[in-house]
Every structure is written in C-alpha cells, then in structure tokens.
Amino acid sequence: MATSFSFSHSSTSLLILQSSSLLPSPSSSRSLHFQTRKNSLFQLRTRAKPISFSSSSSTVEEARKEDVVIVGAGIAGLATAVSLHRLGIRSLVIEQAESLRTGGTSLTLFKNGWRVLDAIGVGTQLRSQFLEIQGMVVKAEDGRELRSFKFNEEAEDQEVRAVERRILLETLANQLPPDAIRFSSKLAKIERIGTSETLLELVDGTQLLAKIVIGCDGIRSPVAKWMGFSEPQYVGHCAFRGLGFYPNGQPFEPKVNYVYGRGLRAGYVPVSPTKVYWFVCFNNPSPGPKITDPSVLKKEAQKLVRSWPSELLEVIDKTPDDTIIRTPLVDRWLWPTVSPSASSGGVVLVGDAWHPMTPNLGQGACCALEDAVILARKLAAALEAGPTAVENALKSYERERWGRVFPLTIRANLVGSLLQWENPVICAVRNNIIIRKLVQLGPLLEHTNFNCEPLRKTEVSQISS
Ligand SMILES: Cc1cc2nc3c(=O)[nH]c(=O)nc-3n(C[C@H](O)[C@H](O)[C@H](O)COP(=O)(O)OP(=O)(O)OC[C@H]3O[C@@H](n4cnc5c(N)ncnc54)[C@H](O)[C@@H]3O)c2cc1C
Fold it and tell me: Which InterPro entries match (predicted)?
C-alpha cells in the first residue's frame, strides 16, 4: 500500500511533503492565523509556491493540527462526529461539497437505526417529523396483492420510518458546534507521517495533521482507496428514486408497498403527511451513462412501470423533478484475509466507505449509524491512553463491525438477485409460492436487533478506568 496518494492532480494542489523528521516548528513557517473557536488558535497554512509532485521528498510545513478529522459529512460522518461530541471529544468534519446535501430523497430506517439516533439524542426530534410505518404489502405487477404483514406482529418492538435524508443530515449537523464542519474541503491527498500522524491535504492546499482520520467519504471513498480497497462492484441493477409531494396531504396508509415484476420491482412508502418516497429498480447490464436531466429520469422511470398499479404512477407523477435520482447499485464483499484492514495507523473507515452494500435490506445507513456509535465509544475510551490504545480500539471496532456488516452485505446482494429475477417460471414460483406461503417477516428482520445505550460524557472515564 502506498503511503502517499493524490486524488486530484491539479497543479495548484500538489505539494512536496517531507517526513516527520523534517517538520518545521509551527511558529517558524509562513501561515495564516485565524481564530476558529474560543481560546484556541489553529493555523491554516497557505502555500507560497506550488511544488512539483514528482519529487519523492516532501515538506510538511505548517499544518493545522487536529486530534480527529472526519472525511465526509454524510450520515456516517455526521453521526460519528455527534457521537464523539456527546462523549466530549471534538472532531473536525471536512466535506467536499459547499453545504450539506440538500437534494436526494429518503431512506428507510429500521429499529437499529432508531436505537442509534436515540443514543445520540436526536431520535425524538426526528420521530416527530416522520410517520411510523405499520406494515408491508407485496403486490404482483398486475396489482394483485400477494401478501401483507404487520411489523409489530412479525417482530416485536420493530420501528420503521422513512426519513428525508436532508432533514436527517441537518438534524445531525445541528448537534455540532458551529466550527465543526468545514465545507468546500475536498480531500486531495493523504500521507502517513511518522508513526502517529496523518497528513491530509485539501484541494485548496490546506494541510491538516491528524492523529486520527475517520474516512466517512462514501462508496467511492478516496480514503478507502488509499488503504488498498478495490472499487465497489456494480451488481447488475440500477434504482430510480424520488419523493412525491402532495401539498394537500398524501392519501396512503402508513405501509411499505412493494410491486414485484420480472427483472423489475418498485415500491413506495409514505414519509410524512405530504411526502411519499418511491423507487424503481431495474436490471441493466452496465451502470449506463450518468443522466442529470431530472425530467429525462422521470420519463424513464415512468416508462418502466407504465402498466403497473396506478397509485405508483401517480406518486412518480407527483414528484418534483429535482428530487429524482438514478443510482447504479454496487457493493463490496469484505472477504476475510483478502480484504484490506478497515483500520491502519490511526486511519479507520465508517459506513459506505468501508462496506458499501445494496439497499435491498435497507441497512446501509442503519449500519453506518451503528458503526458511528461503536467507534466513538471505543475511541473515546482509548484516546487518553495514547496511540497503542487507540490502535487497539480501532482494531476492536473493525473486528466487531466486520462480523456484522460482511454477512449483511452478502445477504442484501442475494435478496437483490432474487427480487430481480427475470425468468417467468422462477418469478411465478417466487410470487405464488415463496412470498405467498413460505416467507415469514420476523426472521427476515432479525438483523435489525441492535441495542445501544445513550452516549454520555461521563461514561468515557468509566470505560477507560
Ligand atoms: C437506492 C438506494 C436506497 C437506499 N436505501 C436505504 C434505506 O432505505 N435504508 C438505509 O439504511 N440505507 C439505504 N441506502 C444506503 C445509504 O444511502 C448509505 O448507506 C448511506 O448514505 C451511507 O452514508 P455515508 O455517510 O457512509 O456515505 P455518503 O452518504 O455517500 O456520504 C459521503 C460524504 O463524503 C463526502 N466526500 C466524498 N469524497 C470526499 C472527499 N474527497 N473529500 C471530502 N468529502 C468527501 C461526500 O460529499 C459525502 O457528503 C440506500 C442506498 C441506495 C443507493
């Protein structure tokens, strides 16, 4: 694995970096000083001259020093930052975008996701904005009901709600101190410095020297790439998603509605009194071109299900263009001994950056939330004890989480394959025998069992003592 990796090769963003023995003292170098929080002076370096990347030696001039830097302000990054914050640990979140992702649609959170949101203190606030989903209805493409389930009959204390991603992100971000997220901060380069620090360079030339780097930078994670992970694999189907808007109130019961066809499935679920989330998942031999025109996306999604139950078509029709997206589905299987380690030398991965999984179980974000609290607890207990304790904590996080996320990634993939079958005979068996007669929902939702106590600052001293 390379110790230095550049993600962006713009000439202005490249620096020569040197080993830790050549680090000048912070006071000796040119720097722009600015006050980022009360009583603490951080130094943000500006480069006097662009330096060629071709040289093998490097100079860490004056980098802003941070204990914990989190790369990415998605669900994983923000939940990790909030979890650490609850335990009294400051982190800096760097996000490439100019602001929180305000677009996007919705995602379904099962009870494991809600346990985490409760533990970090935002569950009640979010619950009040999103409907509790009582059950699930499965239909064939002609609208015939194949089966229906009630969640509380199948799995005790299950809690299912679809939440708007934007509101989830804003709610998490609002828990953090004002200077905790730095936007327009795309990670361009990462390098291990000595044995206990990592240098991060942003595309604007800013350098950060961190004791711990938490890569929460999503499915195409540059941090994961640097750690030796391969690109996630396309699984053969893509999803359209959108958020239907009913200004005068949506008409649906609080149930998840699925429609299963051949090589094609769709679903919709009420999110709030005025919004309904929908998806259409279709087989495609390749991820296809990136289409950004939302009106084209809408037409394509409608075309796929034009003869399907009319309420699905109506939800798509009621969708503002700017909430429609199309995503090729990918995952990465974390084979033991083959897959790189999720933590190495103070750098660790969380969420999709480590374990991208297909959305067939609705567990990607739920698992990212679980990762966040578990990592924060282990890290908080270890930070005061020094680098060896931190390294052990990261390894312990990896061991515990690998046993959770690896089987779920495989299962989600297999469920997706089953639901995307095209063969008419197999689909008839699936719809008329497996779904109608065999499937019980309870055992299929056992993976949502996850207990999580509230995070409290006082627990850090208890864990570490
Ligand atoms: C179709 C579909 C449906 C889904 N439905 C569900 C569901 O119902 N339930 C569920 O639990 N999960 C669901 N998921 C999965 C869920 O969306 C993801 O697991 C979750 O969003 C992962 O969050 P994350 O923070 O790890 O990554 P992301 O949300 O991708 O966040 C990564 C962040 O890192 C930033 N970043 C990337 N590179 C850099 C860089 N170089 N420098 C700085 N910042 C960077 C990005 O801008 C982004 O803000 C679904 C996924 C898909 C595709």
Answer: FAD-bd (IPR002938), FAD/NAD-bd_sf (IPR036188), MOase (IPR044560)
Q: Could you give the 3-state DSSP secondary structure of residue 419?
A: helix
Give the 3-state secondary structure of residue 73.
coil
Residue type, 398: E
75 Cα–ligand 1 center, Å: 7
Q: What is the pLDDT of residues 242-287, one digit of tens each?
A: 999 999 999 999 999 999 999 999 999 999 999 999 999 999 999 9
Is the full-model pTM beyond 0.85?
yes
Mutation pick for ligand 1 pocket among 83, 94, 96, 172 (CB with most ligand atoms within 8 Å): 96
User: For ligand 1, which residues put their CB under 6 angstroms from it?
Assistant: 7, 71-77, 94-97, 101, 107-109, 186-187, 216-218, 222, 239, 241, 327, 351-353, 359, 362-366, 368
Identify the structural domains of the chain with CATH numbers, from first to last: 64-448 (3.50.50.60)
Q: How many alpha carbons fall within 13 Å on the CB side of residue 92?
A: 22
- Please state, in angstroms and rounded to a whole number, the distance separating the CA atoms of residues 65 and 25: 12
